Q: What sequence folds into this?
């Protein structure tokens, strides 16, 4: 099992990539809560990257005073959201009454993924969180009781991405892209890497493996279920 | 009246109380004990005649207990100030309630005797850095004569030391008095014999110095003052007597440790004005001093030496300057030296850069945003010492082409007389922030001090320098600055940024913690194993204003740091990753300069 994880860890996908996300929210159906998406750089020495939330579907209801947008974010759910990491805090927050499921795709593209410059010293991180209250203070469907994220996706300095999934109800899997992202057509090598990562994720799910916390715990109180 | 012995008891008691408050509220905080004593003529305080308005003369005057009130409190900006009662049979007890920074207060002191009505002219005012007492008696309500009115103020303020246990601190302050005022000020920390004091009396302004005070295990120190202000006999009521203490705390942060150039910025707490701080401290302005404590021969720095340089500081053959064990045991000397400074450094006019005993021209620190125009080996440079009246700049890129830190080119070797300095030689310095005294322009005792070395063997402006106001000449040599102590506390060795790389993840925002969270990774790029006797420390220098590292292990050099757990060595290529959690109220970019240290901070 450890061998499998190591294999997946080094099989990170370099280049533009899309992840399919599904969340089983049946345990909190009817709860008036909220959703938060943010995509932020680290320090100013971060290469440009873009992110889109695509195909947002749910039997729940978007409602309330928001959406509340901070930074370089455009669009409104359930239509496409576009984030650019050129400001420090890029956030989309919306009230939401949960149904039984949420699904959407996260597409990452831009120079940081397609042509890493080797000069930047900071990556970018996407975080998705669900809350059981409209104000967004009580995280739900996550084991990350400290920060409250359901999952994060790091854009690494080599253009690869790393998923940290903190939610047993959430599946994050690389998508087999049927259409090119705005950043361009992925190279065949990337598709191969994407495919290998998908296999890894699937195997990890099948074996329900969890890496040892002491070796791969990123934040205290947060467990990690897979990495591509 | 409290004497020195009483004062010490009160002081020690309050020190314990304030530490409790520190644990509850964090640091810095400020607390005060104010004792207002109204005593009989046998003990000082308000002296009343040996006459009782009701019962006739007292044999021993009015007793202390009848006319004393004592208050202990912490002052907060939201008005947590106790009222001073008068005419109390026993001092009431006031407990610490809240302690906040930026405290200030203004308390009317109704000094009363049975023979005098209260007077609103008696006022105690204070803040984090100043405290004053003003006393003016009311006219007597009857025809008997008063001899004098004295008010005694005991005051304490607890500070977190900028450097930790074992560091030393100088605490200059000034007193400004009118009428008859006396002051006895002390500072102490919780270690054996860690106590210093100073005193003064009389009107006008006087500068006093506390220190050097050694900081004890708690990392805190307490300034205490006993002030007595006197008004003249009511038969000759003059202006109110008052006395004001102006303490002179300054923040100094050092930058660029591990590079060729060392920088320092001195600022006034709470973003205050340099000019105002200098005035309140009794200075014309602030300046720096640098002392060369180590200089190996040969080097190619030449003193003008129109007089004042000790011959022992001159390397054989008249080329280069020596100091310290590496320099023929010659004594330390000011940088630039007396007698015209260095031959490589002049004002833009060509006049000698003779600023001894200061590093910059004496009043450069008072000239806001005004460049000091210089020539370094003929290369122009404009140094703005006082930046926006908010920060005082120090900068130096010391360079000695004769140091064998790396290869010495044949051309440089020829300039060095055909030989290099001894292997392992460094240049060594002590830097001080000082005030320029208003009275005579001489430097105050150091307000902040640090030591550092440099083994940089390149050039600045094409030459070797001690006072180096230009950046290093690219590719001219290798080596870097190493800070070795701050205010007397040893600093562990820095691992220069040429030997490690530091990267970070993105910083995801958490609505739960209201923080930006991510990871910082440090990688050994040196090709050799890095080791530490204790642990590695990652310092985040130059964080933007308002950004704080929530999960910091503490502060070093006014910057937060994180301890790398569990490892004492890093093989070439090995990385370590630490989680970071920032509070960033403005949502702006989070930038920082990482510094990696091989050892623990004291």
A:
């Amino acid at each position: 099992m450890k061998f499998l994880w190591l294999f997946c860890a080094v099989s990170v996908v370099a280049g533009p990539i899309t992840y399919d996300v599904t969340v089983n929210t049946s345990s909190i159906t009817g709860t008036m809560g909220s959703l938060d998406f943010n995509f932020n750089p680290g320090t100013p020495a971060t290469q440009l990257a873009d992110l889109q939330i695509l195909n947002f579907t749910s039997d729940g209801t978007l409602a309330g005073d928001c959406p509340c947008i901070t930074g370089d974010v455009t669009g409104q759910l359930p239509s496409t959201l576009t984030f650019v990491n050129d400001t420090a805090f890029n956030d989309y927050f919306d009230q939401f009454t949960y149904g039984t499921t949420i699904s959407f795709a996260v597409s990452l593209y831009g120079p940081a993924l397609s042509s890493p410059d080797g000069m930047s010293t900071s990556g970018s991180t996407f975080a998705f969180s669900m809350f059981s209250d409209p104000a967004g203070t009580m995280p739900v469907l996550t084991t990350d009781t400290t920060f409250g994220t359901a999952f994060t996706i790091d854009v690494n300095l080599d253009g690869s991405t790393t998923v940290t999934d903190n939610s047993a109800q959430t599946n994050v899997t690389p998508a087999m892209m049927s259409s090119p992202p705005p950043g361009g057509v992925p190279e065949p090598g990337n598709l191969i890497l994407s495919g290998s990562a998908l296999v890894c994720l699937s195997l990890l799910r099948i074996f329900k493996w969890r890496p040892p916390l002491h070796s791969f715990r990123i934040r205290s109180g947060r467990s990690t279920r897979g990495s591509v | 009246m409290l004497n020195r012995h009483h004062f010490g008891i009160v002081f020690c008691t309050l020190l314990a109380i304030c530490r409790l408050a520190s644990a509850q509220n964090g640091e810095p905080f400020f607390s005060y004990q104010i004792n207002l004593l109204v005593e009989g003529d046998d003990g000082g305080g308000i002296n009343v005649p040996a006459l009782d308005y009701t019962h006739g003369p007292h044999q021993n005057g009015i007793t202390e207990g009848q006319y004393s009130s004592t208050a202990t409190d912490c002052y907060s900006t939201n008005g947590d100030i106790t009222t001073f009662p008068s005419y109390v049979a026993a001092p009431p007890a006031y407990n610490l309630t809240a302690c906040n920074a930026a405290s200030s207060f203004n308390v009317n002191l109704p000094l009363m005797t049975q023979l005098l009505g209260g007077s609103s002219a008696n006022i105690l005012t204070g803040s984090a850095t100043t405290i004053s007492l003003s006393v003016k008696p009311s006219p007597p309500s009857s025809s008997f004569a008063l001899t004098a009115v004295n008010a005694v103020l005991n005051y304490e303020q607890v500070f977190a030391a900028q450097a930790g246990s074992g560091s030393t601190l100088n605490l200059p302050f000034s007193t400004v008095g009118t009428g008859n005022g006396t002051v006895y000020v002390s500072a102490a920390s919780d270690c054996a014999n860690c106590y210093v004091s100073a005193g003064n009396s009389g009107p006008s302004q006087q500068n006093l110095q506390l220190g050097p005070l050694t900081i004890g295990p708690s990392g805190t120190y307490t300034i205490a003052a006993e002030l007595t202000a006197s008004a003249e006999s009511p038969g000759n009521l003059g202006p109110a007597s008052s006395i004001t203490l102006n303490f002179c705390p300054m923040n100094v942060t050092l930058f660029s440790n591990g590079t060729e150039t060392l920088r320092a910025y001195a600022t006034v707490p709470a973003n205050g004005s340099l000019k105002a701080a200098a005035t309140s401290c009794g200075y014309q302005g602030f300046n720096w001093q640098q002392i060369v404590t180590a200089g190996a021969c040969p080097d190619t720095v030449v003193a003008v030496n129109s007089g004042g340089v000790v011959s022992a500081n001159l390397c054989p053959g008249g080329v280069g300057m020596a100091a310290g064990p590496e320099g023929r045991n010659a004594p330390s000397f000011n940088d630039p030296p007396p007698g015209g400074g260095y031959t490589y450094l002049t004002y833009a006019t060509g006049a000698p850069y003779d600023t001894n005993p200061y590093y910059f021209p004496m009043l450069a620190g008072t000239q806001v945003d005004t460049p000091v125009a210089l020539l370094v080996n003929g290369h122009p440079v404009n140094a703005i010492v006082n930046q926006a009246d908010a920060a005082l700049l120090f900068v130096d890129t010391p360079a000695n082409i004769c140091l064998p830190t790396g290869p010495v080119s044949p051309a440089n070797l020829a300039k060095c007389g055909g030989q290099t300095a001894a292997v392992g030689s460094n240049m060594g310095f002590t830097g001080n922030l000082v005030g320029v005294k208003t009275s005579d322009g001489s430097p105050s005792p150091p307000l902040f001090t640090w030591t550092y070395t440099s083994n940089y063997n390149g050039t600045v402006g094409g030459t070797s320098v001690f006072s180096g106001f230009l950046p290093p000449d690219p590719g001219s040599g290798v080596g870097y600055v190493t800070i070795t102590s701050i205010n007397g506390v040893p600093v562990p060795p820095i691992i220069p940024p040429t030997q490690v790389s530091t990267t970070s993840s993105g910083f995801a925002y958490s609505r739960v913690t209201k923080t930006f969270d991510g990871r910082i990774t440090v990688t050994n790029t040196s090709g050799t194993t890095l080791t530490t006797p204790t642990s590695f420390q990652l310092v985040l220098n130059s964080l933007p204003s308002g950004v704080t590292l929530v999960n910091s292990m503490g502060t070093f050099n006014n910057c937060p740091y994180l301890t790398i757990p569990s490892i004492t060595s890093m093989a070439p290529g090995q990385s370590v990753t630490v989680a970071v959690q920032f509070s960033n109220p403005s949502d702006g970019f989070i930038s920082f300069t990482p510094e990696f240290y091989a050892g623990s901070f004291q």
